[in-house]
Amino acid sequence: MFNLFRNKKYPEFWKEYLNTFKQKPTKTIETTRFVVFDTETTGLDILNDRILSIGTVTILSNTIDIADSFEIYLKQDEFKAETVEIHGILKDGNLKKYSEKEGLEKFIKHLGNAVLVAHHAAFDIEMINACLKRMNLPKLKNKSIDTGILYKKLAGKKDNHFNLDVLSTEFNIPKHDRHTASGDAYITALLFLKTISKLKKERTIHFSDLFRNSNNKGLI
Q: Global pTM?
């Protein structure tokens, strides 16, 4: 009863988000909706830095669905000129920008109960969770996959740790729009698909294997 009372205080978009998890999830790689995402931020401090933009592409049936993509820019209340050289996002400019609250609401509606995929996923997810906390909302409920960890499941890769540039080169992925949220999300989506394809050539993999961190035979 107490939980029901608390849920009534949530905004409507968050209630709708929670309801998506009541649906019976699919348990195959082919039928699962993966939302590959990236954030551009003012820095690497989870508590004090802020998200500048969020970009996503969706994977379904082993195919990137560009039509089901998402990109949004957030207003910069605290401008850090030194980071513009990395992400290229100006404080003003001609881009339409939303408040953090508006941007996160749109992102959550797009996300639903999809499985999140990102390179070094923990950082991006914690940046989103920090935004949600400022909105007095709980953390994301979605399952997540880090393509860096997924890469380590490949034979002989257990002890290696590579950034997105190195892995893009290894898998012959063009680095167009690198260091934009949407560009990095697209690169990560290609890395995700290529890594899974290579894993399938090495052994039989199942949906649950994607979430296991061990590199033992069979990914168990």
A: 0.86
